[in-house]
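Notes to self after the Tuesday call (sharing in case useful).
The group wants a holo model before anyone commits to mutagenesis around the pocket. I volunteered. Ligand is uridine-5'-diphosphate. Logging inputs and output together so the record is complete.
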Amino acid sequence: MIIVLPCFNEEEVLPITIARMSDLLERMIAGNKVSDDSRLLFVDDGSKDKTWEIIESAHNNKPFVCGQKLARNVGHQNALMAGMENAVNAGADMVVTIDADLQDDINVIPEMVTQYTEGFDIVYGVRRERKTDTWFKKTTAQTFYRIMKLMGVGLVYNHADFRLMSSFVVKELLLYRERNLFLRGIVPCISDNSAFVYYNRIERQAGESKYPLRKMIHLASDGVTSFTIKPIKALIGLGAVFIIISLCILVYVLYNYFRGHVVGGWSSLMLSMWFIGGCIMVGLGIVGEYIGKIYMEVKDRPRYNVEKTLLK
Ligand code: UDP
Ligand code: MG
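Result:
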């Protein structure tokens, strides 16, 4: 097993994380829960502080603490991808991803491994409650899940990027070549053979959140626009509604016109405004449909993910 931990300027929390994760891993190895070549892989996502030095010195003390330094900051999702790719290439049978700030309960990892040995390919860590999150974070997150559901993207509610995946799932995940990554949306597309473990999210052990509002909005918009072209489709519907409104206005305009108290030019202006507006929107929506198709094709996603085959 390899546990992947993305770190971006995490010098304050890293020593605590390394100590606690090492302790957990040593216990799991001693209990024969995981193989004895299991490792921790810290992915330094282009940190500007002492993060890499800390990882290096930990590696010198304990060889199972490994590191990977990215040349620049590429963001949480890409850092995770880099770590997972490295982990399966190194021969890991399963990969666990978890934030380096210990907000997710590391003590459920053995439970995840148990589920894996029972045959599940994906084990999602799901937050039971969000007591320690601010009101703002809680509401924005919940609104986001609602919008995604409305858009038809299957997400696991209250699950962030704390999960266990078998090497099969990670290898398939690597076939998704898209640049705008939203792992939470892609992983459920790969396999249904999944289980859940529940935990309480705690506060960051040290340091500050590396997800300012700007990055959160970015992630959320990636979540919507990487998975669905529904917003484009909605344009056609909206245009159709406008054309229907123009029909109602036709009645209203004619009524006023025949009663005679209208300013010259009002009737034709009123009508054409709504009608043309509706036509433009439908037109945009149709063009958008094609662009949406191009977009989906350009992603070049795998059409299916083969789990087993008996054909040699
Ligand atoms: N992170 C990263 N690259 C970034 C931003 C964040 O690798 O550009 C890492 C960060 O070090 C942490 C994890 O992603 O391990 C989650 O970030 P954070 O805890 O700041 O997010 P929050 O829990 O506040 O949503
Ligand atoms: Mg955090």
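Two things stood out.
The chain is about 50% helix and 15% strand.
Residues 2-225+302-310 form a domain with the Spore Coat Polysaccharide Biosynthesis Protein SpsA; Chain A fold (CATH 3.90.550.10).
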